[in-house]
Amino acid sequence: IHHECNHDHHIKDINLRETSQNYINHPYDKSISSSRRRQLVLSSTNTSPIRIRPYFDPDTITTSNGLTTDQINYMKQLISVSIEYYQQFINVIPISGSLQLQRQCRSYIPTEFAEACLSYYSEDQCGDVDIPKEHFGPQLTYTYTQGNQTAYFDTASSGNGVAETDLILYVSFGSFGSCGGSTLAYASSCYNDQYNRPIAGTINFCPYMFNNNNGVETWRSDALTTLHEMTHILVMSSSLFDKFIDPLTGDTRENIIEYVNNQKY
């Protein structure tokens, strides 16, 4: 089966958010001296293979959604081998402690320093997947009483994040917006850290994945499709190009995209 990549259409509806993570001696941390940051950039001792943790959406990857047990296991195997592949070749500065996402602010007021959030949305999604409460960290919330400001960490609607993880992969199945035609799957980033590295992304498998002739599963082709789509989460996406960082300066790079004969490269 031929896969039609629908990524450029899909990312039009994606709201890429930033949520800071804890790192030890990150080379882009500008509170560290420039000479020390340069040493960290040139050293590989502070990097480790990326730790990718999949979360399979219980609402869509289930037999009650029309999938067979074999089809569910097939998708899990595709994700597993793709993760193993990327963990062989991609090293990152590991997150210290657990990876903690932040909910979107629903209402806020401006202050002289920044916007102070008064309340957060109770639910949040990555792609078509509802993010579990446990994946969120405590939320800094402000209250105002008679002109007095009080800040506190709201833990009632959060958890402890995801331990030993550098990227959370939210996996779903269904004929959602970007499925159609010969699209087998689509993917994108949802969250970046403060240094513009993707830390959460989504991949959705379309029903066309299982429209094989005579039910024959073309494993190699489907594995390559999964790898291709995961690359959109990690790096190859126009939503990420303007966030690339020059490792020697820690500043975002310019002119990432070049046009040659009216083609983007």
Could you explain the architecture of this structure?
The chain has helices at 7-10, 34-42, 69-89, 219-234, 238-241, and strands at 17-18, 48-49, 52-56, 91-92, 105-110, 115-120, 125-126, 129-130, 139-145, 148-154, 167-173, 185-192, 198-205, 259-260, 263-264. A hairpin with a 5-residue loop joins β12 (185-192) and β13 (198-205). α3 (69-89) crosses α4. The chain contains 5 helices and 15 strands. A 5-stranded mixed sheet has the order 1-12-13-11-3. With 265 residues, the protein is of the alpha/beta class.
- Mean pLDDT, to the nearest integer, reads 80
Strand order of the largest sheet: 1-12-13-11-3
Strand count, sense and barrel status of the largest sheet are: 5 strands, mixed
Structural shape? globular
Radius of gyration: 20 Å
Fold blueprint:
Blueprint: H1 7-10, E1 17-18, H2 34-42, E2 48-49, E3 52-56, H3 69-89, E4 91-92, E5 105-110, E6 115-120, E7 125-126, E8 129-130, E9 139-145, E10 148-154, E11 167-173, E12 185-192, E13 198-205, H4 219-234, H5 238-241, E14 259-260, E15 263-264
Parallel strand pairs: 1-12, 3-11, 11-13
Antiparallel strand pairs: 2-4, 5-6, 7-8, 9-10, 12-13, 14-15
Q: What is this entry, summarized?
A:
By secondary structure, the protein is of the alpha/beta class. The protein has helices at 7-10, 34-42, 69-89, 219-234, 238-241, and strands at 17-18, 48-49, 52-56, 91-92, 105-110, 115-120, 125-126, 129-130, 139-145, 148-154, 167-173, 185-192, 198-205, 259-260, 263-264.
